[in-house]
Amino acid sequence: MKNLHFLFDSLVWISFFAAVFLAWYFYLKARNKERMALIEKGVDVSEFYTKTDLKFRFPWLKIGIIVTGISIGFALGLFIINDSNFSFEPGPVVLATSFFFGGVSIIIAYFVDKPQMKKYVTLPDGLLQMLKLFCSGHVKIFTENYGNF
User: Fold this and answer.
1) Which of 47, 125, 128, 148 gives the lowest tally of CB atoms within 10 Å of its CB?
2) Predicted TM-score (pTM) above 0.85
3) Taking the chain, what is the end-to-end CA distance rounded to the nearest angstrom?
4) 90-120 and 60-83 are packed helices; what angle lies between their axes, rounded to 10 degrees?
């Protein structure tokens, strides 16, 4: 019976990795066919092969602060349950302190990472000018209809 259970678990993992591999393979195959069709039509495909300068950083600092806050909340909740003379239900106390300290840590992570976000979040000049024109047009229409504010 144990061998059957082991066989079933093995088949599940093998089929999972086979599905991931096949999805990746057919994605690459379809992308290659699409690019070949564009080349046959004479379309410039150099934009597909240019490297884009993405300034994405994985938020390890934020994740670390949030996990630390949740852990502190969990530990404090257990401490409150074990050292109190009140008859608290353990589940809600631990959950409430974990959520509270998790929320506080999200706020702290936002303010810690805020100076670094300014470095990486920039708008292209065209989009920035379009936004300025769009906003100035609305302000002009508003002041014409309702006067200065």
Assistant:
1) 148
2) no
3) 80
4) 160
